[in-house]
Amino acid sequence: DPLRVVFCANATHALNLAIGGLLRPGRHVITTGMEHNSVMRPLRSLEAEGAPVTVAPCSPQGVLDPADVERAIRPETALIVATHASNVVGTILPVAELAAIAREHDALLLVDAAQSLGALPFALDDLGADLLAFTGHKALLGPTGTGGLVVGPRVDVARLEPLMRGGTGSRSESQLQPDFLPDKFESGTLNVVGLAGLTAAVDWLLERGVGEVRAREIELTSRLLSGLGELPGVRVYGTRDARRQLSTVSFTIAGMEPGGVGRRLDDEFGIAARVGLHCSPLAHETLGTYPVGTVRFSLSAFTTDADIACALEAVSRLAKTASGMTSPS
To answer: Are residues 217 and 175 in the same domain?
Structure first.
């Protein structure tokens, strides 16, 4: 039902809408050890107001055992929040299993699909999610400033409070906020130009096929993971299995700070990489890379074989320099 898609400025906006709109003091929430600060910061804020938070642990590869979530369930558990895939190492979490747990215990499941929507072929029904937050500017290939929250049929809209209230273009005769979807949560003028761009991007993606994009990214990610893993002094994090993760690859080089690696990749090789903690300190604690972080490569539908070869050559040269085997060029 398109009326159950609430457009937002980004996934952070959507996550805050869902978390802040549902949780109240005394309502328990469970999340995972691989979450982005877009989940953790609103949860910690609400925790300070009396909504207890339990973090289910993940393995050092970012893998979640659903049994750890089920063990954390309490009678007052209202919400489970989980990323679909890590923004640090790409590890895919078992959200369908979490959905079954949520239903069994009369809780809701909120999925952070910022990384996965457009990268993995799935439908909301496949996941069993009650709420799904997404952004337009990542795997959906759209402009920044676009995103949304998909509200499933198990969610009582009357219990979901809006983040803000104002003009909606509907029920203009009333000074009260509309109580129906999506208007209840779409106050103010939306980013219409950005959403038009997102529509064009999604049309292109659907024409090519998300499954085809995923298959190609698995191939390239496998090559990158394998190549990095063979380089002396380079450590790769996560599952190191392209079928169990997205095309997000994190690594470090012995003897070099991630920030220094990123600068040299940019300056000497023209390669853009994200370095540090990636707005996910909890995930880095899980991976054992806190507080320094990692270097992150992110592949896309437009990444080529030549890009992978160039990246591997660049990291190889930097690793040799760090180990003193050769001088920088």
So the answer is: no
